[in-house]
Structures are given as structure tokens and as C-alpha cells.
Amino acid sequence: MKELITALLAPIAGGRRYWVAAPQKLSDGNPPAKPYLVLNRIDGIIDYHTQGPSGLVESRLQVDVYDVTRWGAEVTVRQVKAILSGYRNGAIRGAFINDERDLPASDAGDVTQLFRISLDLTIHHTE
Hints:
Layout: H1 2-8, E1 17-19, E2 36-49, E3 52-67, H2 70-84, E4 92-104, E5 115-126
Parallel strand pairs: 1-2
Antiparallel strand pairs: 2-3, 3-5, 4-5
């Protein structure tokens, strides 16, 4: 599922999508360009029937969009939604957006110039 989601989101944010955390610095010593996506699989619930595992999983996915402007983050979120909302193909049996929210881009007290919008999705997929 992670490989497929990563591939689906390749055209967004210049291909800058990172699982768990964005790097502080890239190999050239500079921070990653904006916008970028940070993806986290929150959980994965394995489906069972009376014979054992069905081979299906329901995963919750959080997609955080970071950008230097509020408008830029909004545009990128719309692109993510256009690709993932209702997506169904191959191993992904269905992708559904559950929630969208504005969040601070860092912890309280940190100085940052970034805007962050977070999406929560439910992804039904095969193992």
C-alpha cells in the first residue's frame, strides 16, 4: 500500500513526499523545497472471517501538506484529494477522506514560516 500511495502522489509537490518525517537537510545540504508531503500510516486493521485473515486491511493514513503560503498549501491539498479521494485500483480497494484540518507547522514556541494542512484517509487494501 505504501509503495502504491507513494507512486500515486509522485506528480504532486514536485515529487517531494516523505514517510514519517521530512529530512532536515537534503544531500546538497539544503532543506527540502516547498511544498512537500509527510505521510504517516496511523494503523492497519486486519480483516478476519471464520476461516482466518481475509487478506484485506483497513489502514488510516495521515497526509500533511507543508508550504510557505496558506494558498500554496490549499492548492496542494486539492491535488492530493483529486488523486486519492475515491481512488480504487489494484491493491487499493477504496480510499476515502475522513477529515481535513489546519494545524501549526511546528510545536508551540517554535518559529516557523510554514503552513500545514492535514488530511486523514481510510484506505481499504489487500495485504
